[in-house]
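Support case: user asked for a sample of complex input and structure output to validate their parser. Sending the pair below.
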Amino acid sequence: MNIEPASLEALIGEFSSLPGIGHKTARRLAYHVLSKSESDVERFSTNLLNAKNKVHPCPRCYAFTDEDLCPVCKARQGAKSICVVEKSSDIIPFERSGIYKGTYFVLGGVISPLDGIGPEHLHLPDLVQRIKDENIEELILALGSSPEADSTALMLDRMLAGVSVKRTRLARGIPMGSDLEFVDEVTMLRAFEGRVSL
Amino acid sequence: MNIEPASLEALIGEFSSLPGIGHKTARRLAYHVLSKSESDVERFSTNLLNAKNKVHPCPRCYAFTDEDLCPVCKARQGAKSICVVEKSSDIIPFERSGIYKGTYFVLGGVISPLDGIGPEHLHLPDLVQRIKDENIEELILALGSSPEADSTALMLDRMLAGVSVKRTRLARGIPMGSDLEFVDEVTMLRAFEGRVSL
């Protein structure tokens, strides 16, 4: 006999639709929601709507913001470098480390023909326009290390033919605190190829 | 610089409050919500409220339901056995296996002095009353195998002093498909003690 109330099943379905949440975990979360106070669930429900309704891409860099310009674009007007990332949340580790003082640009993905994502789905033309308009001096690519990221970088390189801007990408190598024994082959290959003299 | 919009941070906080969801996972879920369509997020928000507002404990067995009686209590009026579980979702594996045709009773937890849960926080008196009122013939304890579950069973046993009802508990032993090599000591102990002749 199916003993789950329909409204509870619907909530389990919602949680299941989130990435990395299977049906059993979704059920656990839904039952947990029932144990919360009414006001807590109301606040959760409102915060869901709020986040969706108030948050939008920054018109200059496409990072998520709930203001007219994102805090970085607002604070660093006139910066001469742009760091290109795939998605908005990729900006967080940069800002947490505090090493970078320029602006960002969120591409909105990488070119992936298998997933039907072509250059026209990304904000590449906007990026090229911004580089020209603002006389950007350095473009830092921080796109991850998949083949798709590489072909996106290549496409950007072609679109920037004739534009004088220094292009760099993040170093690839052994991460801090990792045991050499457990480093995968590709990372080791890249760390070895990119070795620097002491 | 903190680049996360306040409304997004609030949503991350909501997901973090769920069991087993850490801050990083919560952020991933919240960003995923932003990528959903407006109508999908509205439905999610409504389903949260719906589940909380419509679902309530069945007045007879305390299982979650959105009707006046849960489907089991409605379909199996007059059944002469009660299976006692800790929480509503524990009923699901019984109903999935289809082996049991009686009714259930959700205690709402087990006695756990360390967590401040005493007998008064459980529905023990209601259970005793139901056993007497309905002339229940068999009481099946399905409370898990923690020391807290054992002391709850003991408490129930005392409260039923003088009541003639057969009391059983689920068998403990080696689960289906498990490799003997990986069976833990306590399970092995119980399986050995409970061995049956062929």
